[in-house]
Predict the structure.
Amino acid sequence: MLEANVLKTLHEHGAPVPAVHAYDGVWLIQEYLAGERLPHVLVDCDSARAHELLSSAAGGLARIHAIGAETGLQGKVVQLGTADSWLRDLIDTPNRIGEALGVSAPILDVDCLVAMLRFGEPSFLKWDARPGNAVVREDGSVGWFDWEHCGARNALDDFAWLLADEYVPRVEGLADIAVANAPSGMDPVAAREYFLTYATFHTAVRLALVVHYKEDEDWWDEEMCLAEDKVRVTAEGASLLCRRGAEFAMGTDRAAPLARWFGAIAHSLGV
């Protein structure tokens, strides 16, 4: 019901999402978005094309955020990550990775980070806005599907889901993409600081999944990860996450101590 109602509202207002063909309270039939999943395109393109695709995907999310504000969707969905305990768990992710790999994470000012990452006025957002839930359509635009996890929080969180993913190749200016697509009333300096901080810890979340699934086993097959929409438990995926996590961390004083730690994790994983 949530997905059907949200898709109807978004599609009626021109958002890049599937149309709802039918919903009877049990079965939902929605439009098939023809094209190729975004990760499949990203892993085979150069940095300029990747930047173009990511900018298009972020622009679509920004349009969705704006429609949410126009239609009041943020008041019709659940608010996500409202408790400080949720934020503390997010900030603790490097510690859990460090314990698993024997690479201690640095001590951070958790209270300061929690205060910084509280979201204030909620925005409607997709939430599970990873590239695997996006399609590069035949006309070159990017469409978004799988809306069962949508909710309300800081709109910049969607850009962290998109840009901090392990399928995103090495691209310059990721924070610029996020800031350029932030809600119009958001201060650009504050938006950059928030994005870099949140994206640092979201990168750690993705890395924690890689570490969890790999354990002591070999890396997974790259083609299988792509074909089955799996976490990218590969040397390339882990390397990208460690490098990008360090880059995000270096951009903000609050998370800066994690930059060297991401490098130590890369060394521990042999990537």
User: Anything to note?
Assistant: Residues 188-214 form the longest helix (27 residues). The mean pLDDT is 96. The chain is about 50% helix and 10% strand.
